[in-house]
Fold this protein.
Amino acid sequence: MSKILNWEEFLFPYQQAVNELVLKFQSIIDEYKLRGLYSPIESVKGRVKKSYSILEKAERKNIPDDMIEELIEDIAGVRILCQFVDDIEKIVEIIKSRDGIDLRVIEEKDYITNTKPSGYRSYHMIIAYTLMTSRGYREILAEIQIRTLAMNFWATAEHSLKYKYNRKLPEELQERLVRSAEAAFWLDKEMNTIREDIMQAQRINERRDRLTLSIIENLKKIYASDKVTDIGNIDNEYMKAMEGGDVFKMENFNRELEALLEKIEADEK
């Protein structure tokens, strides 16, 4: 029986660390987008192990209760997903750049270069994160997993199957998983070769989305004004500009709307 009586209190700092880490990585994504740059981080999420999962791991590895904090490194976990294999190295560099500021990198485990026999691929970093608590500063161990979307799809499927078969997968199923892991990695490598084309298409889509929002906001301001009488013509121009999602047409139309708004504001003074 576990000697840890108050699991809520025990896990609270781990949850705080996860919340802060997720917020910081999300802020990096937001900053890249604000500057109109490609973010190597596609998405980030975190979790804290449940008490029963911690106890199961401690029992499996013969870890006494008073050593759980020191020896179980993934009670706090953060998973970072990216689009391309090359992004993983950039994310590792981002994390290392914080070393000595708000975290310490303790260990790195490269399961991409050194793939597990099961086919599992991911890049793991064990960090000690500096947390400010009501009792002062404290370091919390956390595991950061960095994967491509394809790697994560495979790992999620494998995890579900392990749970179903209580970690004892049938040999034939294990072989199929290994083959599917290779197929997923082949896809990652192929996507890497057309990376620039994909990124260019994404930049155009993001630009189109920003223009759409700007046009809608400008139209709202124009429709709210009693100085405009040719609303029907503006609606027709709007339909032409948005047809086919041509970015250049949208930009020209938006400039016309901005010029009209400037004229309206000047007339109202």
Remarks:
- The chain is about 60% helix and 15% strand.
- The longest strand covers residues 136-148.
- Residues 174 and 256 are 61 Å apart (CA to CA).
- The chain has a mean pLDDT of 90.
